[in-house]
Write a structure and sequence with these properties.
oxidoreductase activity, FMN binding, alpha/beta, binds flavin mononucleotide, NAD(P)H-dep_reductase, 200 residues, Flavoprotein-like_sf, Rossmann fold
Length: 200
């Protein structure tokens, strides 16, 4: 029993939308329902509305000068540091991902290193896939490993019933595939980091 608990993966779910009237929480809560069905991983939802981050960066290599900025970071950074893996829930804004998400990514470095990242995207025609492809480029710079299979909701407003259930069962299949791949990489990289600490 304890072995199983010790082996559970900690997954930080980063919700990348902070817009007033946003649809993001519907998508994030649907994803959390998938975690609730699994015995191999626990999710920690990081909602950037509840835990906003500063937007003024410090001198390179120095901590933020203001105590307020340090306090905001303290609510997020340790959760990213302890995560074995990440899932980013992102809408598509102008063929990319929201600026608030880039801000959250840029505040962190080693927290991303040698860890896997999966994606759930949503938007209009493109299902947020252009946002995901751009995130892959950014995360490669941060020594993260992005998961091939993702989940995308095209025309997201019509994809959920009032209870927050995805109306297309293919999306549930896609979520399981993505999380299974994420689990494989998260275990593999956690074991590898323990044997040979990642240095970059
Ligand atoms: C500033 C902005 C830009 C958008 N650009 C795109 C886009 O390029 N492609 C697309 O498919 N949908 C686009 N959309 C639609 C969003 O993906 C959709 O409204 C989604 O619900 C936004 O996520 P949110 O509700 O969590 O903020 C855009 C929406 C906004 C607010």
């Amino acid at each position: 029993m304890s072995d199983m608990n010790d082996n559970r993966l900690q997954i930080a779910v980063l919700l990348g939308s902070t817009r007033d009237g946003r649809f993001g929480p519907v998508v994030a809560n649907w994803l959390l329902s998938h975690f609730a069905r699994r015995e191999d991983m626990d999710a920690d939802l990081i909602d950037l509305v509840e835990t906003p981050l500063p937007t003024v960066f410090p001198v390179l290599g120095e901590p933020p000068a203001s105590p307020e900025a340090r306090e905001l970071l303290a609510a997020v950074s340790p959760r990213l540091a302890t995560a074995d893996a990440f899932v980013i829930v992102t809408p598509e804004y102008n063929h990319s991902f929201p600026a608030v998400l880039k801000n959250a990514i840029d505040w962190h470095g080693r927290e991303w290193h040698a860890k896997p990242v999966g994606f759930v995207s949503y938007g209009g025609f493109s299902a947020g896939l252009r946002a995901v492809e751009q995130l892959r480029l950014v995360l490669a710079e941060l020594h993260a490993v992005t998961i091939r299979d993702s989940v995308g909701f095209q025309g997201v407003w019509a994809q959920f019933d009032p209870a927050g259930t995805a109306t297309d069962p293919a999306c549930d299949v896609a979520a399981k595939t993505m999380l299974d791949q994420l689990a494989w990489w998260a275990h593999a990289l956690r074991e590898a980091r323990a044997v040979r600490p990642y240095s970059a």
